[in-house]
Amino acid sequence: MFTGIIQTIGKIVGSEALDDGIRLRIDAGAPFLADVGVGDSIAVEGACLTAVKIDGGVFAVEVSRETLDCTVGFPPAGEVNLEKALRLSDRLGGHWVTGHVDGVGAVRVFEAVGESHRLVVEVPASLAKYIVRKGSVTINGVSLTVNEAEGLRFAVNLIPHTLQATTLKRLEPGKRVNLEIDLLARYLERMLLEQRSGGSGQGS
After folding, report:
1. What is the CATH code of the structural domain delimited by 8-84?
2. Which of 30, 58, 97, 134 maximizes the CB count within 10 A of its CB?
3. Closest CA relative to residue 84, chosen from 120, 31, 126, 122
């Protein structure tokens, strides 16, 4: 589990093809990895991945074909948002983020508005119903509040700190982004469907 508060920006320094996916080496810096061990989870651009090797400030992860198919992918030498898994004693600064990317959206507008930036993203129809004004959404691992939501598009405001601390500053119209909807929306939908169908929601 994560919060969507990015802790550092890493850089992909190696990519190797596997039988069913790829193996990445990511330079995160020794301070970030000081309390990380092999087997720990790290969100990379919003996708929950497992550290399989740690060497100084570099860690390795193996990305399955399924993960590659439901994300924008991981370009060689690209920068990536990184967040370590949430500890029970940590502050929940963003919202509950699972690191399971729900789909891919496309940037339609990325424009300066005063000192901040307005970001408009178009989403698949299957995800649009879960995104509401003043609700939460995760873009490339970053927890954000939805300011506008209409049809297949929603807008968020990016303050200077968010731009400086994440890879979102490199966005531009046409770029694709990883999306994770608010987990609560999924549970609410299931509960409402159960109520309408008269089901108990209990297994046999």
Report:
1. 2.40.30.20
2. 97
3. 31
pLDDT higher than 80, residue 188 = no
Residue 134, CB-side half-sphere exposure with 13 Å CA sphere: 0
What is the rounded CA–CA span in Å between residue 156 and residue 169? 13
Give the mean model confidence (pLDDT) for residues 40-68.
97
Domain ranges of the chain: 8-84, 103-190
| Topology alike, domains 8-84 and 103-190 | yes
Query: Each residue of 100-155: pLDDT tens digit?
Result: 999 999 999 999 999 999 999 999 999 999 999 999 999 999 999 999 999 999 99
- Give the residue carrying structure tokens 């159960």: 194
Class of domain 103-190: mainly beta
Residue 194 confidence (pLDDT): 80
**In angstroms, what CA-CA distances link 70 with 31, 45, 73, 138?**
30, 12, 8, 15
Angle at 183 between CA 180 and CA 189, to 5 degrees: 115
CB within 8 A of 142, min separation 6: which ones?
Answer: 4, 6, 46, 81, 162, 166, 168
Res 202: pLDDT: 53
Residue type, 127: L
